[in-house]
């Protein structure tokens, strides 16, 4: 009687790690296209910042000098910062919806590296933030009330764009902590409150001493001073420390929650 050995199982090929951990232009295009199809995203990115710029444009006193320009330029930079921060935070918080529908769990089955995933979110947030900044500045140009040198205008836009990374990180952090659509319900009013308290809408000089000293510790204070520095040439060292510290805090928080999430099976 002849015995036969069962065939040995074919070796399983090791899954090849894609270049850059899976970060690629195709993924970026998909993310951008998905966001631009969302009406809520369009409202946050285009309509809300433009409405704020027009609303503040009806105020008096725009022609008073402020740094190398006037008060109109001061307000314009502030509104661009708020619109970009809100947009970047909303993009970052989409991880909450992706987790609620199981999309993040599906991504963990792919070769996509978690760092590449967060980097994709950051680039998308910067892209949408840039769109919000351009919208606000275009409204400002059409109004014709903001006056500042072209070099200051361009520098302020670039600095504002990089400052939005802080709020993209905040959005990711909140998206990993808060479930589903509740993320923007917290971020929206929260950013508005931080903007008022941090001197983005109202100069801190108009606040009481107690409120002003509290404002120095809020996340919006540092970035507000940094974004307006090209115009005002006034940037206290503690404002820079504030901006860097909160950026690192939000990055660390997002990385910590991401590691907790990706560790689940």
UniProtKB/TrEMBL annotation:
Keyword terms, alphabetized? Antibiotic resistance, Membrane, Transmembrane, Transmembrane helix
Q: Which GO terms describe its biological process?
A: response to antibiotic
Q: Which residues form the ABC-2 type transporter transmembrane domain?
A: 26-228
Q: How does it sit in the membrane?
A: Multi-pass membrane protein
Domain of life (superkingdom): Bacteria
InterPro entries tied to this protein: ABC2_TM, ABC_2_transport, Nod_factor_ABC_transporter
Q: Where are the transmembrane segments?
A: 42-62, 74-97, 118-140, 152-178, 190-208, 235-256
Pfam families registered for this protein in UniProt: ABC2_membrane (PF01061)
**PANTHER family, alphabetically?**
NODULATION PROTEIN J
Q: Where in the cell is it found?
A: Membrane
Q: Which organism is it from?
A: Nocardioides luteus
What protein is this chain from? ABC-2 type transporter transmembrane domain-containing protein
GO-annotated molecular function: ABC-type transporter activity
- Looking at the keywords, is Transferase present? no
**Which GO cellular component terms, listed alphabetically, does the Swiss-Prot or TrEMBL entry include?**
ATP-binding cassette (ABC) transporter complex
């Amino acid at each position: 009687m002849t015995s036969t050995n069962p065939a040995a199982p074919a070796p399983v090929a090791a899954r090849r790690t894609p270049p850059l951990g899976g970060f690629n232009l195709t993924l970026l295009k998909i993310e951008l296209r998905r966001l631009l199809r969302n009406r809520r995203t369009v409202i946050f990115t285009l309509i809300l910042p433009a409405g704020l710029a027009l609303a503040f444009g009806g105020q008096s006193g725009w022609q008073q000098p402020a740094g190398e320009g006037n008060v109109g330029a001061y307000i314009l930079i502030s509104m661009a910062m708020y619109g970009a921060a809100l947009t970047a935070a909303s993009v970052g918080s989409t991880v909450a919806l992706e987790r609620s529908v199981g999309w993040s769990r599906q991504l963990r089955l792919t070769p996509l590296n978690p760092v590449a995933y967060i980097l994709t979110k950051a680039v998308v947030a910067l892209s949408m933030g840039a769109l919000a900044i351009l919208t606000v500045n275009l409204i400002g140009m059409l109004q014709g009330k903001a006056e500042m040198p072209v070099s200051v205008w361009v520098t302020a836009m670039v600095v504002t764009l990089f400052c939005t990374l802080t709020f993209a990180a905040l959005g990711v952090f909140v998206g990993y902590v808060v479930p589903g659509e509740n993320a923007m319900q917290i971020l929206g009013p929260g950013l508005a409150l931080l903007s008022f308290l941090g001197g983005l809408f109202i100069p801190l000089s108009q606040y009481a001493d107690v409120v002003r000293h509290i404002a120095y510790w809020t996340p919006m204070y540092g970035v507000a001073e940094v974004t307006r520095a090209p115009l005002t040439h006034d940037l206290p060292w503690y404002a820079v420390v504030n901006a860097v510290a909160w950026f690192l805090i939000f990055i660390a928080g997002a990385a910590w929650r991401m590691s907790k999430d990706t560790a689940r099976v």
